[in-house]
């Protein structure tokens, strides 16, 4: 609302009720390290993920499918990579681009990531007790940031994505090319399971998930099951930011690992 709009000259840290402090911050610690690290790591991930998503190649090596390409739904998908058929034939770009909107939307609207990229990319503010350089502040009350409110809907989509990735991790126990039928395991299987566990931890520790399980209840005592779920999610929620980072790394690592296998740069160690 307009009431929330502030101008650096007259409000916010320069408001009449605030102490007159000329410096942008009085902090003497390395507060800039966190936003700087976030900026570097996120930028690196965006460059890598953009390249891989547009690549349209080297994302499937039996029995491993890259999380960037799952589910693979177009008729250009590599043979064997489409768990759910190939219902889309009109799409001529990389099949990853159709489905990445869901995990991407989920992360972009995530409460933790919002804090991280508002600080690192917009410096709004760069850290606690460090004034931001912008003259105006409207929060998330206007387009486009008001769209952050659809996070809960992305959460529903993210649960479906996590289920599909879990299915892929089960399929990762399948035989590699040339192996007999039955249960097998390679380093790729381990990496895919590590990734899917981290994806679940990230998805279930979500603030929206916490509200979905325990929000809008007047009496926890009358909803013991939801109370238990809420307690569980609340514990995970305390580490949501950590899971956000770990799961970001793990999807990139699994994709890169499959890329290395597909390009022949590395051979998957097989345990059995
Ligand atoms: Fe981070 Fe929902 S708050 S995924």
From TrEMBL:
Transmembrane segments: 31-54, 90-113, 153-176, 182-202, 243-262
Keywords: Membrane, Transmembrane, Transmembrane helix
Entry protein name: Succinate dehydrogenase
UniProt organism field: Nocardioides aquiterrae
Record lineage: Bacteria, Bacillati, Actinomycetota, Actinomycetes, Propionibacteriales
């Amino acid at each position: 609302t307009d009431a929330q709009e502030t101008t650096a000259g007259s409000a916010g840290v320069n408001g009449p009720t605030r102490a007159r402090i000329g410096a942008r911050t009085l902090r003497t610690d390395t507060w800039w390290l966190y936003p700087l690290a976030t900026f570097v790591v996120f930028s690196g991930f965006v460059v890598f993920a953009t390249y891989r998503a547009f690549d349209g190649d080297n994302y499937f090596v039996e029995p491993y499918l890259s999380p960037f390409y799952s589910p693979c739904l177009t008729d250009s998908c590599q043979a064997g990579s489409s768990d759910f058929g190939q219902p889309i034939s009109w799409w001529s770009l990389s099949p990853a681009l159709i489905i990445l909107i869901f995990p991407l939307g989920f992360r972009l609207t995530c409460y933790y990531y919002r804090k991280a990229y508002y600080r690192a990319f917009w410096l709004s503010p760069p850290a606690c007790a460090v004034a931001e350089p912008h003259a105006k502040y409207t929060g998330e009350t206007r387009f486009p940031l008001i769209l952050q409110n659809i996070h809960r809907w992305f959460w529903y989509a993210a649960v479906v994505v996590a289920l599909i990735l879990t299915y892929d991790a089960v399929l990762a126990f399948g035989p590699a090319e040339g192996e007999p039928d039955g249960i097998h395991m390679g380093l790729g299987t381990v990496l895919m399971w590590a990734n899917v566990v981290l994806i679940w931890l990230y998805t279930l520790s979500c603030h929206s998930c916490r509200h979905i399980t325990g929000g809008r209840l007047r009496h926890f005592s009358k909803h013991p099951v939801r109370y238990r779920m809420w307690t569980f999610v609340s514990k995970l929620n305390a580490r949501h930011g950590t899971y956000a980072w770990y799961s970001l790394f793990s999807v990139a690592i699994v994709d890169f690992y499959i890329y290395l296998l597909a390009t022949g740069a590395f051979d998957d160690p097989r345990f059995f």
